[in-house]
Amino acid sequence: MGLIGEVLLLPFAPVRGSLWAVGQVLAEAERQYYDPAAIQAELARLEQRLEAGEIDDDEFDSQEDELLDRLEISLRGSAGSGTGTAG
Fold it and tell me: Which of 32, 33, 74, 84 has the most CB atoms within 10 Å of its CB?
């Protein structure tokens, strides 16, 4: 498309820039969501809440399962990061 295409798409530059920024924010949010250290810290806080009586065993088990699933996805993803998508 070249120069003419860039000139024609110039009015859409703010939209393209916004989409890029949103993509960057989403990528960072996903990185933090699947960060093994953050997940382990959440597991520790969850156990503290159980010991303090803030949550019952059922709630603990439910949240622990979710965190362990995230941790498994994180570890699977980092193991396959050099070769593309894991699965």
Answer: 74
